[in-house]
Amino acid sequence: TLTKVVQINPDYTQAYVSRGILNHLLRREKAAYQDIDLALRKYEEQNDLASYQKVLSLKKSIIQSQVNQVG
After folding, report:
1. Which partner from 17, 29, 36, 41 sits 20 to 30 angstroms from 9, CA to CA?
2. 46 and 61 Cβ atoms separated by less than 8 Å
3. pLDDT digits over 14-71, tens only?
4. 17, 11, 60: which is closest to 40 by C-alpha?
5. Global pTM value
6. What is the DSSP letter of 36?
7. Inter-residue contact 14 to 22 (CB < 8 Å)
8. 3-class DSSP state for residue 29?
């Protein structure tokens, strides 16, 4: 599982992104945002601007999809 992956290798940032997406699809929004925000922090620490921008765009898409569901 993705949780096992991050336990074994907490520096594997893509696992947090993937788990965040999965949590969003399962409507576990709090957990999704926690994982995505953690991935954003890790990419920022790694100075990986390209990955940071991709995950930030993903987060904005998730927020927009929630807004569309409500409205």
Report:
1. 29
2. no
3. 999 999 999 999 999 999 999 999 999 999 999 999 999 999 999 999 999 888 887 6
4. 17
5. 0.90
6. H
7. no
8. helix
Under a CB-based contact definition with an 8 Å cutoff, are residues 17 and 39 in contact?
yes
Rounded Cα distance, 51 and 57, in Å = 10
- Between CA 59 and CA 20 the distance in angstroms is 9
* Alpha-carbon dihedral sign for residues 28, 33, 47, 11: negative
Look at phi and psi of residue 36 and say left if phi exceeds 0, alpha if psi is from -120 to 50, else beta. Answer: alpha
Q: What would the two tokens of residue 42 be? A: 């890790």
Neighbours of 22 (CB within 10 A): 15
Element (H, E) at 59: helix 49-70
Question: And the tokens for 46?
Answer: 């790694």
